[in-house]
Amino acid sequence: MEPVQSPDVWEDAAASLARRGLDPSSFGRLVVVCAHPDDETLGAAGLMRGVVAAGGTVEIVLASDGEAALPEVGTIDRAGLARTRRAELDAALAELGVPATVHRLGLPDSALREDQLVGPLTRLLAGADAWASPWRGDPHPDHAAVGRACPAAAPVTAHGFGFPIWARTRIAPTDPGVPWDRAHRLTLSADDRDAKRRAIAAHASQSAVPPGGTRAVLSPATLAHFHGGHEVYFREPPPSGAPPELFAGLYRDGADPWAVRTSFYERRKRDVLLACLPRERYALAAEPACGLGELTRDLAARCDRVVASDVVDEAVAATTDALGGTPGVEVLAADVDDDRAIPGGVDLVVLAEFLYYLPAARVGAVLDRIAGALVPGGDLVLVHWRQWPAEAPADAATVHARVLADDRFDTLVEHTDEQFLLHVVRRR
């Protein structure tokens, strides 16, 4: 599969379009799922090195042994090629300085199917902090199958990423199917690039023309696409959003999982939010996903009535204990879709660290509910951490942009800093 574009095309796109940086040091256990030996080196060498350098561990899941390379060459000993490619993987990992555990699934090369992969991957991805695999949009059916299987198999608590391989040689970065809105860029050091070159060379069977063949799998023109200074990763968030039971487990036994009672980040965020409220007082406020009720207490001082709700019983109990008997405060066990969570006639709705946990379809439904419940001139406040939680289908910038583009609201306040994003919009 010869490249149809210059290596500079994706290098330039990575520098200009992948606006998020990727920090490997935050992943204690990374699992790289490969369709074939060499996927890990071509697509994720820098990521693996970064995780190991920060004290983390790397595991490789090898779906196939890559025995079907160059299928037109009938004289290749396929079992022998599989052995060679497994040995090349070990050599490449040694060149990278990555002491990875390798799990072999032994599935047939060039015939990988998503339904066959999900079961074993569910077991191997359990407990991972992050996973990476070939991108689901890559123009190789095995790469695409692995890329589709991983989000279905991975726990929602794991950060997921797809890396382009053949896409770098065959798909223009300007193609509308390339999800730059979810792209992360990893800049490789000189040492990273040197190690990656050596590791690619270790996959020698792929860069050599075999006896009886007319081409190599990885020609010099193809390899040039992987010698640059950037790796690209497309975030693959959980398709269904964060389940309530996940948060229930975090809140059990009186826990404060995000240190909302004690951390400076949480105190400062509440102070900034309150300072950004355009009115001194509100008649009726709704706060879905109220958590432990720390913000509820502050809102009660600015509102005649506050309806605080949460889908997690443990959070409702904690907020009730903290604010029970406070005049004008009602605490409910209710999901955001429940009419009681955002009653009609509210003039303030506050969504704090919540909206990005919902799948896109539910975000739209919640905005419809809020637009219908807010009185004309009522205010909606959004505040979210600017990092991308593993369990979240989108990040703060994405969900805020969706609200700002909604013509039912006018933007009044925008606050952006290195920690969180805050907007206040007003119902027309």
Strand content: 15-25%
* CATH-defined superfamily of the largest domain: LmbE-like
Uncertain stretches of 5 or more adjacent residues: none
General form:
elongated
Helix/strand/pairing category? alpha/beta
Helix content: 25-40%
Strand order of the largest sheet: 1-7-8-6-5-2-3-4
Q: What's the story with the biggest beta sheet?
A: 8 strands, mixed
User: Any idea of the CATH class of the largest domain?
Assistant: Alpha Beta
Mean pLDDT: 96
Number of strands: 15
Helix-strand topology string: HEEHEHEHEHEHEHHHEHHEHEHEEHEHEE
Number of domains: 2
- Taking the alpha carbons of the first and last residues, their distance comes to 55 Å
CATH fold descriptor of the largest domain: Rossmann fold
Strand and helix layout:
Blueprint: H1 7-17, E1 20-21, E2 29-34, H2 39-53, E3 57-62, H3 78-96, E4 101-104, H4 114-125, E5 130-134, H5 141-153, E6 159-163, H6 167-170, E7 183-187, H7 190-202, H8 204-207, H9 220-223, E8 230-235, H10 244-251, H11 264-276, E9 282-287, H12 294-300, E10 303-310, H13 313-323, E11 329-333, E12 346-352, H14 360-373, E13 374-385, H15 396-404, E14 409-416, E15 420-427
Helix pairs in contact: 2-7, 3-7, 4-5
